[in-house]
Amino acid sequence: MAQRQHRPGAHDLELAALCVAGDRLAFGELVRRHGSAVRALMRRMGADATMADDLAQDAFLAAFEQIAEFRGEGPFRAWVSRIAARIYVRRWRRERRSALSIEEAATGDIETGGGGLAADARLDLDEAMKSLSETERLCVSLCYGAGFSHAEAAAALNAPLGTVKSHVKRGLDKLKSRLGGEAAQDRSSIRG
Amino acid sequence: MAETLFELRVERLFAEAPSLADAEAFAGRTLERISRGWLARRAVIGSMGVLGGLIGGFEVVSTGALGQFSGLVAQAPGWLAHAASLSPAVLPLDLRAVAAAVVLALVGVAYGLARPMRGF
Q1: CA–CA gap between residue B67 and residue B72 (Å, rounded)
Q2: CATH code for the domain in which residue A20 is found
Q3: Is the ipTM above a cut-off of 0.95?
Q4: What is the pLDDT of residues A113-130, one digit of tens each?
Q5: pTM of the entire predicted model
Q6: Do B5 and A2 touch (CB under 8 A)?
């Protein structure tokens, strides 16, 4: 369904203030702006397209309920991404019946990426994330996509801090090899 | 240093999410879901209000409170005449203070009810 843009020039914080005053269309504009990012985060964390959409919708609904708590200390996208990440983790833990520790999950991981890619092949992040195990993907996404600290990720996953750190380290190593390693990194840092 | 640069790069890649083709449709669906939720919430609150009103009305009728109230109303002119004959100095409170207290109490009750309903 096509949706007419509502106050397209307004800042996110302004739109959030309008939402607090009961303007639902202003919230629609926030969803239009940041929906793709949240859905992409859910996919990168490991959800399929349908589940990612459902979780992102749940996150935006939760954000709408809590919109008065958004004070604009950080970007709206980061705020709603954290909400979405928590919802994903809650579901992930429930589906694993929460008794399964992150270490056990790691031993059951299946490596989904192919092993024969050249180091300088520039794959995009979505493809590169597929080479990570489920728990590595989750830990990397929480820390670099949703802005969790290692300690926050460990608390959310109910896992030891050291375990999360090692998953993040392994995940980053894999990403580095998939995304082109040092050469591409240097090019990127020169550009950025 | 190289590690930090790579971490920054990963963070940037996460932040640079592409806009999905059906972003507008997704926003529309989400807004629809929010509207449906609000309608359902209003329906539930309205139903609870009607139910509460019916229970309250039934209680008032069943306890005979209406008859007692009618009696009080019948005696009211006498009380008013008595009150009018009293000097203001005898009354510790004036009617404006009583009215303000009642209004404040109503605001307090409304606020107390609104807080849990917001989270409902």
Answers
A1: 9
A2: 1.10.1740.10
A3: no
A4: 444 444 333 458 888 898
A5: 0.66
A6: no
